[in-house]
């Protein structure tokens, strides 16, 4: 067996955390030969719930689980000490009727201390995935508060949108979801995101050709994906949890596994200026991985329709950045 890696999860006793940590412990993500030590983190009022999560983890007897350590969020440097991955799940969730942007001033300050503590304590090779909303801008805040950590280590989650979009296309086409490739989410994990159906394929054919209904693609498809989070909140009375956890794990797997040539994946990363996006914004792009680091897929052509959508999500991210500029040192 390899040396254990340490994986921190904030909000580990919450709904997403509970759906996440067992799968992290099981070997599903890092493989059957990679032991994992979980650092479970919660806010002080509910930190005792981690005792129950730990008991259940123990009761699973996962051979890959090499340890469980529990922390309250007042001690983040201890919590992130030597961690190779930090999954920032904890944040105040959106309630019915709120837009994700409404959360920005509530959750933003949490991510200044998160960034500082990651820089102070995490392992040299740390990678960070922000799930808590508004995840792009929370990631931006944490990254700015950890200037010594290379900018290619920061990710915000758009995989949930990708998975939603893939299923919408598959169901419309009457095809298995595994046939859908390269369905990429551009921009913000919000109602302005752009799910790029033009460049997606279904069974090796261009998605628009297989679907044969451009009006649906340009309207219902996009709005269904953009508003799916709100629809889940409305239907469930709580924000998506199992599907969000699943997407977080899909993101980590996509980052650590060499990408198959035909299938890029979605995550928001620190822009290098590709596709006219401001350098430094955390923007959803098509990515490929060599199993260690990720690259933005270049050379994708966008129609005027797509350019307009990408501009809208870029403008939203610029305005989110302006809203939190006092939290962005450097
Ligand atoms: C989601 O997309 O389901 C989550 O980001 C929760 C939300 O507020 O939409």
What does this structure look like?
Residues 6-148 form the Lactate/malate dehydrogenase N-terminal domain. The chain has 330 residues and is an alpha/beta fold. The chain has two domains: 5-156, Rossmann fold, CATH 3.40.50; 159-321, Lactate dehydrogenase/glycoside hydrolase, family 4, C-terminal (L-2-Hydroxyisocaproate Dehydrogenase, Chain A, domain 2, Alpha-Beta Complex), CATH 3.90.110. 40% of the residues lie in helices and 18% in strands. Helix 1 (15-25) crosses helix 10, helix 4 (104-121) packs across helix 5 and helix 6 packs antiparallel against helix 8. Bound molecules: (2S)-2-hydroxybutanedioic acid (LMR). (2S)-2-hydroxybutanedioic acid binds next to helix 9.
Q: Which short descriptors sum up this protein?
A:
alpha/beta; nine-stranded mixed sheet; globular; L-2-Hydroxyisocaproate Dehydrogenase, Chain A, domain 2; binds (2S)-2-hydroxybutanedioic acid; three-stranded antiparallel sheet; 330 residues; 11 helices; Rossmann fold
Tally of alpha and pi helices:
11
Measured on Cα atoms, how large is the radius of gyration? 19 Å
Order of helices and strands: EHEHEHEHEHEHEEEEEHHHHEEEH
For the record, the CATH architecture of the largest domain stands as: Alpha-Beta Complex
- What average pLDDT do the residues reach? 96
- CATH topology category name of the largest domain: L-2-Hydroxyisocaproate Dehydrogenase, Chain A, domain 2
Spatial separation of the terminal alpha carbons: 41 Å
Task: Please tell me the total number of domains.
Answer: 2
Strand line-up of the largest beta sheet:
3-2-1-4-5-6-12-13-14
- What would the principal axes of the Cα set say about the shape? globular
CATH class placement of the largest domain: Alpha Beta
**Which structural class matches the secondary elements?**
alpha/beta
Number of strands: 14
Bound molecules: (2S)-2-hydroxybutanedioic acid
Major sheet summary line: 9 strands, mixed
CATH superfamily of the largest domain: Lactate dehydrogenase/glycoside hydrolase, family 4, C-terminal
Measured by DSSP, the beta-strand proportion falls in: 15-25%
Low-confidence stretches: none
Fraction in helix: 40-55%
Keywords: NAD, Oxidoreductase, Tricarboxylic acid cycle
EC number: 1.1.1.37
Catalytic activity: (S)-malate + NAD(+) = oxaloacetate + NADH + H(+)
Domain Lactate/malate dehydrogenase N-terminal: 6-148
């Amino acid at each position: 067996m390899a040396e254990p890696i340490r994986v921190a999860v904030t909000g580990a006793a919450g709904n997403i955390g509970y759906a996440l940590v067992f799968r992290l412990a099981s070997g599903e993500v890092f493989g059957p030969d990679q032991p994992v030590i979980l650092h479970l983190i919660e806010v002080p009022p509910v930190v005792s719930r981690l005792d129950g999560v730990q008991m259940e983890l123990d009761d699973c007897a996962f051979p890959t689980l090499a340890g469980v350590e529990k922390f309250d969020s007042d001690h983040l440097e201890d919590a992130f000490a030597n961690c190779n991955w930090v999954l920032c799940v904890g944040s105040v969730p959106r309630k019915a009727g709120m837009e994700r942007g409404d959360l920005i001033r509530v959750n933003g300050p949490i991510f200044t201390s998160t960034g500082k503590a990651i820089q102070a304590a995490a392992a040299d090779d740390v990678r960070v995935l922000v799930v808590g909303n508004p995840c792009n801008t929370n990631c931006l805040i944490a990254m700015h508060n950890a200037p010594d950590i290379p900018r290619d280590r920061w990710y915000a989650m758009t995989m949930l949108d990708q998975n939603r979009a893939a299923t919408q296309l598959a169901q419309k086409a009457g095809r298995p979801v595994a046939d859908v490739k390269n369905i990429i989410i551009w921009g913000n994990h919000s109602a302005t995101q752009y799910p790029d159906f033009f460049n997606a394929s279904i069974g090796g054919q261009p998605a628009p050709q297989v679907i044969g209904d451009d009006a649906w693609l340009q309207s219902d498809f996009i709005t269904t994906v953009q508003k799916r989070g709100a629809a889940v909140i409305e239907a469930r009375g709580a924000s998506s949890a199992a599907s969000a956890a699943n997407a977080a794990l899909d993101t980590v797997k996509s980052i650590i596994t060499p990408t198959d040539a035909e299938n890029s994946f979605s995550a928001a990363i620190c822009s290098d200026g590709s596709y006219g996006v401001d350098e430094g914004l955390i923007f959803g792009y098509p990515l490929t991985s060599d199993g260690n680091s990720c690259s933005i897929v270049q050379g994708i052509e966008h129609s005027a329709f797509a350019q307009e959508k990408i501009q809208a999500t870029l403008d939203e991210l610029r305005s989110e950045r302006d809203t939190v500029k006092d939290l962005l040192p450097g």
